[in-house]
Design brief:
With about 80 residues, the protein is mostly helical. The chain is about 60% helix and about 0% strand. The protein has one domain. It contains three helices and no strands. Helix 1 runs parallel beside helix 3 (about 60-70) and helix 2 (about 30-50) packs across helix 3 (about 60-70). The chain is flat, with a radius of gyration of 13 Å.
């Protein structure tokens, strides 16, 4: 059985590998402050965004955290 935290660890490994050859083109937020601001902004609205899109709001904290880590790369 997969541990609940494994998806978060996988996202962290993926995000780290994005930087193996320098600044990743797919990222919009390249500095730590930009990344953290984007992650925080996404966390403030993710529930409403799911509701607006007719999707169930995730209630698994690990899944939300994994999604927030990814959102930090692109959310503005």
């Amino acid at each position: 059985m997969t541990e609940p935290r494994e998806p978060v660890l996988a996202v962290i490994r993926d995000l780290r590998s994005d930087w193996e050859n320098g600044q990743p083109d797919a990222w919009e937020n390249w500095t730590i402050p930009q990344y953290l601001d984007a992650m925080g902004a996404w966390l403030e609205v993710y529930e409403q965004a799911h509701i607006n899109n007719g999707q169930p709001v995730p209630n698994d904290g690990w899944a939300v955290f994994a999604a927030a880590l990814r959102a930090g790369t692109f959310y503005e």
